[in-house]
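CORE FACILITY INTAKE
Project code: CF-77B
Contact: R.S. (postdoc)
Sample description: multi-component assembly, two entities in total
Requested service: structural model of the whole complex
Turnaround: standard
Below are the sequence entries exactly as provided by the requester. Do not edit them.
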Amino acid sequence: MSSLLLSTLALTCLAAGCSGLNPPVDPPEPQTLPPSPGQNGSGEDVPSVDVPRALGLFSVDYHHVQAPFEIVLWIMLASLAKLGFHWSGRVPAVVPESCLLIMVGLLVGGVIYGVRHSAPPTLSADAFFLFLLPPIVLDAGYFLPGKLFFENLGTILWYAVLGTLWNVLGIGLSLYGVCLLCPASLGDVSLLHCLLFGSLIAAVDPVAVLSVFQEMHVNEQLHILVFGESLLNDAVTVVLYQLLESFLRLPSVSGPDVLLGGCRVLVVGFGGLFVGLFFGLLAALTSRFTPRVPVIAPLFVFLYSYLSYLTSEMLHLSGITAIVTCAVTMKQYVEANVSERSNSSIQYFLKMWSSLSETLIFIFLGVSTIQDVHMWSWPFVCATLLLCLLWRASGVLLLTAVVNKVRRNKVTFRDQFIIAYGGLRGAICFSLVFLIVDFPKKRLFITTTIVVILFTVFVQGMTIRPLVDLLDVKRKKRALPSVSEEMHSRLIDHLLSGIEDVVGYWGQHYWKDKFEQFNRTFLRRFLIREEQQNRSSILRVYQELERQEQGERETAVQAKTVPQTNSRPLLPEEMDSIRRILSRNLHRFNSRIPAYSRHTLHQDTTRTLQRHRSLGERDTQVEDAEFNGLHSVRSGLRRSHTVCTSPTSSIPEEQAAPKHGPKKHLSFDIESE
Amino acid sequence: MGSNKSSVQNVPDVQELIQETGFSASHLQRLYERFHLLDRDQMGRLRVQDFEAIPELAGNPIGDRIIGAFFYPGKDSVDFHDFVRVLAHFQPTDSNTKRKSEEVYNSPNRKLQFAFQLYDQDQDGKISRAELLQVLQELLGIEVTDEQLQSIAERAIKEADLDQDDAISFEEFKKSLEKVDVNRKMRIGFLS
């Protein structure tokens, strides 16, 4: 722990030193200047030769690597800080990670300020919106629980659109009232400015919400409401912000302009949706053709999502909506098309990038707080804090009262409290405030935004967990349903849609059924590879459970076999597999296929396996399972049962045998490759 | 709204139905209108053909079982009372607080019993392996092979069967659904 701290501090000083190397030091001039271009009519320059005065043994050329070096240092700092927190078991339980990261950022910012006596590098809005935000939102969209999201979509939109509008207008107008009350210090803040400020401070931030809520495990409905709202209010925020900013530049604002603004919300929202849908379907289609080159399949997921984000940002549509829609759309098709390993890679990289982005964002938030540009005003800051809380609470109460009349599952008071209290602000507000066109009180806005963010993240973030415990809010259920549960649930779903048909009621189940029909007859046939199409949810749950159990058995066996490898006599299947692997390796060597090529990773084994197909029935069976084991890590079921022809009653035994097969083969395969 | 034929006064024994099932008068009226719509030969009773004429129900994998659930054993037609009694199972649980909890149609227990009866076609109080297989077949259709069906059924029974009698009793069925919020799943908003 202390070594980590020391290395973190060392890195900080290094970063400070490196950034201190910046403007004051000029790059060493090349000793021989090139002749001025005017003298050479042909346009061919003599290359400038950097002839040093004396030949040195050792030289440092920092500027050559400056940009990537500094970026890597920051990322390294962020990651080491993250490692450090999770080292101690108790700290992350009490203080959410975001708070700790901001504190580290404050520390680093302070050090840099102390070393250089000028402001440390701030988070540029471009870097934030173009590089740091997309991975987080993509990760959120990819792992969004689709069914739950769509069931609650009405409520989420209700909160996102109307709630944000309520907050913006409320905070903006009341702040203007406060400014009117203190004409001495705040007299030059106009109504439009207040509304603009309201629009950026009112929005709940998905990054902050994610980082706090994911450690809390509240019940899924509550989670999806808060989280969905934070994702979807982007459309409203973007529009209002742009609208109010353009109003600021116009000489006067008229009625039709406001109406136009209203239409623009729809355009931005739906535009983002369509862009996301388009790229999502494209990604699904592309993934259909990737089986021959499985290693770049994950790349397509990232490329298409990022492209959808950039495209909608280019068109001034809601980028977050686009990327979330893209992820939700392509997920089921990509997962079906792409191999197990690629699936794991996709999920792993998504998590890694989003975690990195989040860490960087919070650290930069901390660093950027140390600045020269602060302007403090007690009434403004306190009023903003209070008003944010008040308007959010009142908004949630009012909206829930209305929406509970229509919902099946009412949102309880406890849930409402958590929704209101969990409205954290984060880096989006921060970046937006920097983008405001300069005006005298801009520094005040910046300071206030930082204070609000710090308050919500620290105070609300730290206290929300004990509050959840105190109020006894319903928590999340365990992860995987049993097969019976899944089956009975499906039955009940069908029953419900049947009853709805009898009653003539076009409820949720009706639309869900219609969509499933459409999905099955058109989308899945078009977007999913042939062999992969048949996976009902019951089957998936069953296979997932089998996979898990097999994994447990495997780790149990591995734990047992490791100390005993020398003493235990080998079973006949193991002898066979060893023999086969040896002969396969020999074949591979003889046939001059390159031992490792990034494109033929799986084709190697395919070819060699086909040579073995002439071996006996049992070998084929185990082989198929082995082949299967490479492509889809542990789904011993599918292949082995299409080959097996024994009568029904002996199925349980047959099930046992091939399962042992892939297990052992896997451990050998990993070594041989 | 609508002709005299479908007003609440024409519903036989309205008050008794309201008491028994907990539907409100407006709900009953709406259901009566629907009943009339489905009753194509206007006999006041629904037969299997009337149910089968509902197009969406034909596409439902367990459509036949649902239709069968409306018909009480031994009867081959459904009158309005039976119709309403079956549909009463799908009201939200908390809407009937005045009556004792076990007797109402929409108690969680009765809802689960209704679902159980969809499996248990021979009404012997247990879901045998064969019955489970039949339902699985209908739910999964042609997507899976027979062996896979067998193993899924096997697993389902293994998970649920606590007294090792190779069949699922109602209590075991209830237990395997204890984590599912049945009230939430099995309800229809009878708002028109």
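Facility notes:
- The first strand of chain B starts at residue 45 and ends at 46.
- The two ends of chain B are 13 Å apart (CA to CA).
Invoice: internal transfer
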